[in-house]
Amino acid sequence: MSSSSLTAPIDVELRPDRPALVHVDSPGDAPSWAVAHREVLRALVTEHGALLVRGLDLRRTDEIGAVFARLAGDLMTEREAFAPRQEHGPGLYSSTTWPANQPMCMHHELSYALEAPGLMLFACPTAPAQGGATAVADAEQVLQALPAELTQRFARTGWMLTRSYNGEIGASLEESFGTDDRSAVERYCLAHAIDFTWRADGSLYTEQRRAAVVHHPVTGRRCWFNQVAFLNEWTLAPEVREYLVDVYGADGLPFNTRYGDGTPIGEDVVQLLNATYDEHTRREPWQSGDLMLVDNVRTAHSREAFTGERQVLVAMAEPQRLAAGGTSAKESR
Fold this sequence. Notes:
Strand order of the largest sheet: 1-2-16-6-19-4-3
CATH architecture of the largest domain: 4-Layer Sandwich
GO molecular function, one term: oxidoreductase activity
Mean pLDDT: 92
Shape: globular
Keywords: Antibiotic biosynthesis, Iron, Oxidoreductase
Radius of gyration: 20 Å
Domain TauD/TfdA-like: 32-315
Structural class: alpha+beta
Strand content: 25-35%
Protein name: TauD/TfdA-like domain-containing protein
Low-confidence stretches: 1-8, 326-333
Order of helices and strands: EHEHEEEEEEHHEHHEEEEHEHEEEEE
Number of domains: 2
Cofactor: Fe(2+)
Distance between the termini: 30 Å
């Protein structure tokens, strides 16, 4: 395929089992190359949902930050993180701290925030020895594949994220809100439609309801957009869930998800969601120096288990306040 209608044609390799892939030969200065090809790259992301660019040889943090800025403009400061990241510069982060032997299931970044990134940018200075792919899945296709009754229910009620900031598991108050000052945290919650309670031990418990099905800001198409499965207790490894429930109690888990009306989500539903994602997963192993752009609304992403050293830098851009999908039976498929 060739995007010949744009000013800087790029040939794209398309296969059903992996993201769209572009090979670059000797780009020279990568930030300058990004400027020259920005429009065509962004058009390809809109067309395919995700794009892997191979051959830029992105190894240095400063160069990666420059390429991200050329492609996306202002980068977002992450708030409401569920796990720690290392910051490498304004809007430039390490991938989320997560055990290497445990996968991070499919999700849309910050889909529980009022403003979610429309674009995710990834670069891999150091590829892992095995595994560790940032896999993707088309959110329109996932929505179509799920049972109508289930998607209609989520379209009606939305979904709820509950969080308990216990200071031990997951992100701390400062890592999530940018401050540990109680008044500042409360102001943030009030401004971002987050219900909060300070428990007797001084820890914070929050609930936030968000749309589970949204309209894409460019195409208008309806997408399954949430972190219902990824942040649910039934996605945890059984031994991890058992430990957390034993230590913190069923209502004290670091994070969990429910239907938007507060009803618990059954294990069977979570298994169905993850199985549907698996059926629509596309993956390409990282090679050192790769760049990947992901439409965060159209496309869910995951991180597979890995061995060896793995370094991936991440940025978020183009914040979106997304309209919920319709609730009629006709529109919910």
